[in-house]
Amino acid sequence: MSVRVQPITRDEHLAFVTARPSASHTQVPSWGEVKPDWKAESLGWFGDGGQLVGAGLVLLRPLPGPRLPGLPRYFAYLPEGPLLDWHEPGLDRLLESMLAHLRRRGAFAVRMGPPVVVRRWSADAVKAAIADPAARRLRDVRATSYEARAGQVADHLRRMGWRQTEATGEDGFAAGQPRYVFQVPFAGRSLEDIHNGLNQQWRRNIKKAEKAGVKIVRGDLEDLPAFHELYGETAERDRFIPRPLPYFQRMWSALTAEHPDRMRLYLAYHDGEVLAAATMLTVGDHVWYSYGASTSRRREVQPSSALQWRMMTDAHELGASVYDLRGITDTLEESSHLLGLLRFKVGTGGEAVEYLGEWDYPLNRLLHKAFELYLSRR
Prior knowledge:
This is Peptidoglycan bridge formation glycyltransferase FemY. Keywords: Acyltransferase, Cell shape, Cell wall biogenesis/degradation, Peptidoglycan synthesis, Transferase. It comes from Streptomyces indiaensis. The structure is a single chain. The protein is α+β, with helices and mostly antiparallel strands and 378 residues long. It folds into two domains: 4-113 and 358-377, Gcn5-related N-acetyltransferase (GNAT) (Aminopeptidase), CATH 3.40.630; 117-146 and 167-355, Aminopeptidase (3-Layer(aba) Sandwich), CATH 3.40.630. It has helices spanning 10-18, 31-34, 91-105, 123-131, 148-160, 191-197, 200-212, 224-238, 245-258, 303-317, 339-346, 365-377, and strands at residues 4-7, 39-46, 52-62, 74-78, 107-112, 117-122, 145-146, 163-164, 180-185, 215-218, 263-270, 273-283, 286-294, 322-327, 351-355, 359-362. α7 (200-212) packs across α10. The termini are far apart.
């Protein structure tokens, strides 16, 4: 099969995404508007008969510094994409066509994140690993299940010259999209099944919040400042750099314009005060808990547990097949301040999931090396 890659319209891109059961929220057309420092382009993969067989949102970042003579030079990034049949025998042709297009576009390097699952660990397996003093990292713990074809995709990419990026953030968190996430399977399960899958502490906390009078409400654009105030407090407490309020306002405007349920905001009130808030994203039958925020005040009324349960309830009502709590730390060290977050997510009774991670292809090795050096010094 011969393949050509070319720009497609937003409508064509969105129609391709909508026809799939699941796609990352970072691969919908509107996500480009959330990233104003990048130039966004919707790409389509066309087969012999002219049929659209793949799509992807590519974000193009200009090379920092003075512009070089000739074409602008870009770092091309397809977060959690592109949307292809990754087990297609002609995968090399699909990717070579993309590289050729992006080279013509002026890209000096390409980074992508194949949405391919490698292995999964049940909640019990993760809990046992946390309790085992000999276990240092999740990646070294025996998985509950393996996806055999993922290794074939990884080997194929290496033979083509792609190289897997390493996590650069603290405790295994990458600067890009997370390689390790925690998900709660919803497909074929009733809400009662999901509730029964929560651990005893989660169920107790939900009941405690209900008895204390915690109320969960849907928010709107004007409620984002209240969310952001708690988010700033959370960032200081958990030691990460917060995104500014305009980022979330852009996110809301762009995503909800594309689909009214693409992004939701939830706030947990107690005695008239907002104690916790979170954003939820939906594409197809995949729902993500995206950003969470909470105050240290009145934690005994368990607002975060009540908030999560309301979001899970609404996700189930939307027909979700998976509720995705996003990134988790790979480290199992007690000294890690992120281990508490992992324990919180494990309490949902879901599973830890490893994806194939992000991969780079240098089209111009000299410029790619210079860009990597620039990123390391930021």
